[in-house]
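To illustrate the input format used throughout this study, we show a single complete record. The first block contains the structure-token representation of the backbone; no residue identities are included at this stage. The design step must infer an amino acid for every position from geometry alone.
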């Protein structure tokens, strides 16, 4: 019974846990991108009736990027939406107070052998770290009440409870991060595809009739450059978002490891070996 209790996982964090159906976020972003492309970029304020850009209007110029533009916009909007989703989910995971201060307070309570204070801090903080620490504290108390096994085994069971609680929380932290990482590459590849399509049109204009059609030539070059710029912007946003949230997840993981080690070491220091 004591073994099962010590390995019991922590409760999941309360509050916003993230969006599991990220596919629908992408679908919505695609619909928004198509509507934005058709009804804003292609608006008569930006594009004349003859299809020309009005006075070098920047939105009209982007519209001339062609059919690849809605695809790139879908990727860009998806990155923005998923970044907001990750921000809200990680804010819940970090809890109500500042994480470094919480870790310091927990370690101080452990050094003072004040486990009631440590549990009170967890109840107040909430979030991923608080849940995992709470599971480790429960395992600590259960091991104190368990007889007949050696101290090293008890320490191992406390560490096991900590690791299992951490594994329960990690999917929430990592959710949708692979999609953002994928968009980093897709943005660049889509930009390259749009650039190639634009250059094909440019060379086709040069070859038509054996001479250069300046309007068709400029359209092809414009399409190539717009897609290049849009794709690079999308990849840039995706890289920044991915690295930012990866860094936050790493900080939270380090905090979990630090507190888990402290709890196990506190038990080992406070208890003598049992026969």
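Output of the design step:
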């Amino acid at each position: 019974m004591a073994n099962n209790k010590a390995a019991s996982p922590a409760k999941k964090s309360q509050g916003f846990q993230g969006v599991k159906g990220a596919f629908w976020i992408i679908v919505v972003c695609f619909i928004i991108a198509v509507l934005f492309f058709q009804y804003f970029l292609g608006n008569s304020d930006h594009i004349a009736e003859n299809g020309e850009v009005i006075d070098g209007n920047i939105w009209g110029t982007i519209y001339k990027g062609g059919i690849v533009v809605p695809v790139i916009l879908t990727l860009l909007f998806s990155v923005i939406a998923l970044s907001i989703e990750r921000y809200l989910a990680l804010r819940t995971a970090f809890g109500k107070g500042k994480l470094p201060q919480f870790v310091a307070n927990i370690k101080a309570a452990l050094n003072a052998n004040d486990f009631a204070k440590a549990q009170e801090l967890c109840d107040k903080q909430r979030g991923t770290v608080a849940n995992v620490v709470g599971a480790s504290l429960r395992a600590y108390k259960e091991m104190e009440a368990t007889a007949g096994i050696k101290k090293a085994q008890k320490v191992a069971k406390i560490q096991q409870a900590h690791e299992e609680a951490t594994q329960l929380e990690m999917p929430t932290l990592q959710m949708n991060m692979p999609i953002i990482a994928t968009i980093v590459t897709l943005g660049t590849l889509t930009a390259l595809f749009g650039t190639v399509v634009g250059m094909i049109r440019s060379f086709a204009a040069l070859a038509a009739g054996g001479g250069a059609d300046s309007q068709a030539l400029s359209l092809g070059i414009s399409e190539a450059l717009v897609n290049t710029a849009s794709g690079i912007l999308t990849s840039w946003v995706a890289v920044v978002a991915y690295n930012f949230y990866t860094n936050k997840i790493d900080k939270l993981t380090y905090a979990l490891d630090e507190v888990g080690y402290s709890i196990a070491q506190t038990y080992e220091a406070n208890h003598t070996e049992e026969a």
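Structural context for interpreting the output: The longest helix spans residues 214-270. Residues 84 and 116 are 36 Å apart (CA to CA).
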